[in-house]
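hey
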């Protein structure tokens, strides 16, 4: 099985968590795209979806799934999204696609967060994948200096603007031994919108596509 087939298997397995009626939160990235395609096969069962990015909104629309504004949706029963890294504690590192802030907002506003990924995303310690930090443009240099003081190596993501009009610093070589603490520390730097650690609000379920079907961690 290729990694993409594993992502697809995890995405289709997440359909089990989609009940009848209600509005589903949908993430961003290649695994979340598979989930949109999976959701399209049962779209009659849901009332609509909240998208974590403009790209996901477009894909949902193309599949005939109504888009709902989170402000009009109330608490969501379910949010489904991928990850760049995940631990067995269901702490995640996300934002490779730059949609981390909207993803974190939807995760916070959802009762159940199901993370879907291929098995290569499971790690013992988060941080080999550079940690994305969304920053207000005028604060970019200041936030980068503060991150250096914390031991990280921030790299400005070139030619990229988030859906919120901000920029991304990808932080290399951070030792993320305590994801909850690191998430809080980085978020306290003035000018930071949020970072890609999902530890204060981790996933509730992690579905991994593997060479031998799917594996679920809770
Ligand atoms: C986007 C994300 C994605 O979930 C993450 O980058 C994983 O992407 P993919 O499913 O393509 O491997 O956080 O901001």
């Amino acid at each position: 099985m290729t990694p993409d087939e594993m992502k697809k298997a995890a995405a289709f397995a997440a359909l089990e968590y989609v009940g009848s009626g209600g509005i589903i939160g949908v993430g961003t990235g290649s695994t979340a795209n598979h989930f949109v395609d999976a959701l399209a096969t049962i779209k009659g069962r849901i009332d609509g979806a909240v998208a974590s990015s403009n790209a996901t909104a477009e894909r949902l629309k193309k599949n005939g799934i109504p888009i709902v504004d989170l402000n009009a949706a109330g608490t969501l029963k379910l949010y489904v999204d991928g990850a760049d890294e995940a631990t067995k504690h269901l702490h995640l590192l996300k934002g490779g696609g730059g949609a981390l802030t909207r993803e974190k907002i939807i995760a916070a506003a959802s009762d159940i967060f199901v993370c879907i990924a291929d098995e290569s995303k499971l790690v013992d310690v988060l941080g080999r994948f550079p940690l994305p930090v969304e920053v207000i443009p005028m604060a970019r240099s200041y936030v980068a200096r503060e991150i250096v003081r914390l031991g990280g190596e921030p790299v400005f993501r070139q030619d990229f603007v988030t859906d919120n009009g901000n920029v991304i610093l990808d932080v290399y070589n951070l030792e993320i031994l305590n994801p909850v603490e690191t998430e809080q520390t980085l978020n306290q730097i003035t000018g930071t919108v949020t970072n890609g650690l999902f530890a204060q609000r981790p996933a509730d379920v992690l579905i991994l596509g593997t060479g031998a079907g799917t594996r679920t961690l809770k």
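Helices lie at 3-13, 30-40, 54-62, 70-73, 100-108, 140-149, 179-187. The radius of gyration is 17 Å.
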